[in-house]
From TrEMBL:
Residues 10-137 form the RNase III domain. Homodimer. It catalyses: Endonucleolytic cleavage to 5'-phosphomonoester. It comes from the Bacteria. GO terms for molecular function: double-stranded RNA binding; identical protein binding; metal ion binding; ribonuclease III activity; rRNA binding. It is an enzyme of class 3 (hydrolase). It is found in: Cytoplasm. The keyword Magnesium applies. GO terms for biological process: mRNA processing; regulation of gene expression; rRNA processing; tRNA processing. PANTHER family: RIBONUCLEASE 3, RIBONUCLEASE III. This is Ribonuclease 3. GO terms for cellular component: cytoplasm. It comes from Muricaecibacterium torontonense.
Amino acid sequence: MNPKATPAQVKAAEAILGHHFSCRRYIESALTHPSATEGMPVSECYERLEFLGDSILGAIVAKELFERYPSLDEGALSRLKTSLVSGETLSAVAEDLGVGPCIAFGASEKSKSARGMHSALENVYEALVGALYLDAGIQKTREFVLGTLEDRIDNHEAQAPSNPKSALQELVQRTLKCAPEYVVVGQEGPAHDPSFTVVVKVQGIRVGRGSGSSKKHASAQAAADALERLTKGRADGALCGSVLAHDFDEEGTCTSSH
């Protein structure tokens, strides 16, 4: 049995991309989830193409923003780029494009969770970018990327912090002269699609919690949660010291620290 994407799935994906592939291996691999190729070479699934596509996508978006917004500084450009290439954005775009039905899953993922599909959509979008670049070149790839992200290129996103961990580190060190501590408190899911849960502590008190497909992503979510709690959404980003009088349980519910 061939675990790769079916001819129908490939045809649908080519219609989405607006390109007929000369090298079928590229598009077939880009649409194949790791669960469908267990025990086979990694080149049979989308992971290597995802790696390539991530870099190509970043370069295309960075160049477009650099040219489109000449008045934005490096920090604002970075925040906007981060928003555009985030997993949340790419997953939503891929879903809107109809990528989901094109993905070939293994038996273990047939009854996939919403979280699993979210991750797969993000990964396949990047893999398709990598596959398109290899088969059609940079211009065609640029047209696809900008065509699918155009409606989301909005410079108001440049106001949001691009790196919650750095922002939290700066806030805590500046105001409390200490560093936040990140602790992995949970891991679930299969090896090829794990979900981690991380809590972040300040002065031994839990101030944020987050989940993600990697420890890095979960830590970033925890930091973003902590920033919201510690500043209570204040425009000046100042620390609300009263927050540290409380801890949070595993569900993020406020509890007394005494």
